[in-house]
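fwd from M.: "can u put these together and see what the complex looks like"

so here's what she sent:
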Amino acid sequence: MDASIEVHGLSRTFHTTVRRPGFTGAVRSLVNPERVAKHAVTDITFDVAPGELLALLGPNGAGKSTTIKMLTGILTPTSGHARVAGVVPYEERERNARNIGAVFGQRTQLWWDLPVRESFAILRDIYEVPKAEHAARLKEFDDLLDLSSFWDTRVRHLSLGQRVRSDLAAALLHDPPVVFLDEPTIGMDVVVKEQVREFLRHQVTERGRTVLLTTHDMTEVERLAERVVLVNHGRLVLDGTLDEIRRKFGSTWQVRATLADAHTEVAPLPGIALLQRTGPQVVFGPDGPDAPTVHQALKAVIEHHEVTDIALDEADLEDVMRAAYVHVEEV
Amino acid sequence: MAVLHAWRAARVTPLGELHTPPRMTAVLLRLTVQIVLVASLWHGLYADTGTTAGLDRDQAVTYAVLAVLASRMRELDQYAGRDTVLQHMHFGTIVYWYLRPLPPQRYHALRALGEKLYGFAWALAGYTVCLTAGVVEPPKSAATAGVFVLSLLLGQLVLYYVLLVLDQMCFWTVRNNAAMLILIFAQNLLSGVYAPLWFFPGWFVTLSAFLPFQATLNVPLSLYIGRIPLSDAGLQLAVQAAWVVALHLFTRFLWRRAALRVMSQGG
């Protein structure tokens, strides 16, 4: 099956003027400006399959938003190419616009002075969505996002959570097969976040939409994404499943067990090290680069030892990503 | 064509205003006070004079009051609606203009059309009241009225393009407040909102002939009151049309260049 999003060797360089410090520096910058090239994105390649939700992660300034802006057609790459739902976005901006929906953080596309429903109606006309189809989709979104409780309110009077839910609906009202979400839940409370996640899950699993999500919220990644692309300094440093990333960077698990016999010998297990032993209490941890996942380790410990109690300590995804970012910086 | 289906974008300003009655009350009050003061001022100025700068008292009062009414088609509170290019650049929401199957220039034009029509409704209501109350004179003939309407339409197009250039400046400068203040002052002065251009010195009138501002208001109002005779209307309309074409081509060029600037400024 063809990928919904194809990115090959995508690069973008910005040229900016260096502002020198101090008054003299400012005058020199004015008279003799020094231009420098900033490589925001360098040679990024990845694909996203139809109906897949991919999390594009990376620290601030890593190049995530620039990548999304190239894929939405706002920005033309310096080199490389991209295709979204079969369209080169920066060459056919208007055609691409019909295939995509986008939400950029807290930046709303709704009309400030109008009730939410009026904004939806304007977008319906812009995207030429038939009225019956529009009404049906609005009903579906209302069921999931509870829009009708505030859609007659003017946008300027909405809470952040209400506005983001409205923006999500606005981005999907024309039924785009591909959706770009740039930190959509930033600043929202946990209840609304969960509602939005449920909505996104529904759009992926039930509607088969392809979603490219950037976020710093690792709970969101954990609950929504199976695959992650990690970028840093504009370069792709990792493309894999969450399990692969955990295996590579999240090797901080511990299995704590209480042995039935306090004097029994602890047999060596492949990739698992005995970290500590106090009588019947033993603590295992990963050993080497081929260490098993925490669940495999748990299974191995139970299979090879008679235990009366067992517990897991696993680094959460945030720890894993922190380790990944630090590793990437060091590389 | 998406632009035909997107007509609702033209409703944004009128709907926003209708949802905010205090704004409409403020407009009504301001317009009333302005018209009363302007009419009183020009009546006072003509108290001891018959004809000045080629205008008699009724012509001058009509010109000045119509200028106030026409300014309603420009001075809408777009900032309150958070839908100016300046604000979209500031908040980074300009990207959405480039994510829709409706080109930004058509969206901008549709929004402006709605604003102009809404402002025109105010101006027309004010004109009807002033005409009934005898504050302004009716046009001298049906031909004058027709030429005035055509000239007013061309003048509004020129004004739209002049304001569009300012909006487009935001793609390069992020802020256009200073330029906007200068332009509003220049437009008021050089188009005849403050006072009919006929009262200014010859060099000033000559200078303003080389600028687009007099085409926005002075020409249609002068045609209405008969200060520009109908026999000269053809030339004046041609000059207005030339400004429309020149500014249209210039702003089209700027839209193309602006598309390359979306990211670096507020994207």
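replying to her w this: The CA atoms of residues 32 and 126 of chain B lie 9 Å apart.
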